[in-house]
Amino acid sequence: MKILIAPNSFKECASSVDISNIITKELDKYHLGELTQVPVSDGGDGFLEVCRRIFKLKIRNYKVNTCYNESSYTVRTGLDYDRQILYVESADIIGLKTIPLQYRKPTLINSGNFGELIKKIYRIHRGLKALTIGLGGTGTSDLGLGIAGIFGLRLYDKSGAGLPILPKFYKYARQIILPEKLNLRVNVIMDVSNPLFGGKGTSYTYATQKGADKKELAVLEAGVKNILSILKKNHNLDFYNEMIGAGGGLALGLSLISGVKLTMSQQFILDQLGLKESIKNSDAVITGEGNLDEQSFMNKATGIIIDQALKYNKHIFLLVGTNKSYSAKLAKSNVKIFELKKLYKSEKDSIRYYAQGLKTYCGRISDYLLSLK
Length: 373
Hints:
Layout: E1 2-5, H1 16-27, E2 34-37, H2 47-55, E3 58-65, E4 72-80, E5 85-89, H3 91-94, H4 112-124, E6 130-135, H5 145-150, E7 154-156, E8 162-163, E9 175-177, E10 185-190, H6 202-206, H7 214-235, H8 246-257, E11 259-264, H9 265-272, H10 275-280, E12 284-287, E13 291-292, H11 301-311, E14 315-320, E15 322-323, E16 335-339, H12 347-352, H13 354-372
Parallel strand pairs: 1-2, 1-12, 5-6, 6-10, 10-11, 12-14, 13-15, 14-16
Antiparallel strand pairs: 3-4, 4-5, 7-8, 7-9
Helix pairs in contact: 1-13
């Protein structure tokens, strides 16, 4: 049999690469057939590790400041020497996982440290052709203006005084000085497509989970609308209908410093990671993630793989931490779900002992697979 192992990351537990390695090592004991690993990411946590494995990247480390104070830390990137493309995971730089709880105030932090990183990369790698950014899990909501600020973007109020490039002050801006442009292509991989403002915009959809309260949501929303108005009125740059609200609107700031190409996670996973052909050529597909819910089927990695495997009528095995989805797709006879939470007394234990839980379920999956041979 040809068995494809393509899990997403299990947040709070392990990366998709680690999960894939555990499953493969365990199933290999049963001599089921050909095992193929393609761990996945939809742009969020684990993006760099997935790209490192698939594209044979060389890790390059850079020291940057945090987005919340003057402390510094090391950020990992991955370089594809042959194609001269550098891969970056936004969650490693401005992700919620990098921001302590007391600093999660999206009106008072920005993506300036991401701009610092891009500036260092641009200065050091003169022959670099492109920067590929996995966009997801961010803790900022600044439209990427912090990035643009490192390259010269400035905000001024009605009296001509300079304003800090922080979302708290966006609504007071009356003039924007645009930054210098880089001779560098930027590819952005993102899993959701939503507007920059409104009920489904970047503020009201994501800022609460980043730490904003109701009052701060209103401040963020007013700031976004004001910035968009100035860009259109003074610079003929119209972002009103752009569906780039993911990651706190980071792609807007990136587009002010470079040419940006947006790629949705479905295309990235199926085409660039090669999952379309891998699924088509397999007999069975093993995938999953930490928390399977309705969002898993909204252009997220696991849902994309399930849809593609169902299209080709493959046997599907889902390994998940918890299953909170009520999708009719999961009721198909060729879909088997294995929930780690059911093996333990608490969800906390299922997280702590996830590796053993995966091994236990691999034994059960092997029984199913052997019955199909």
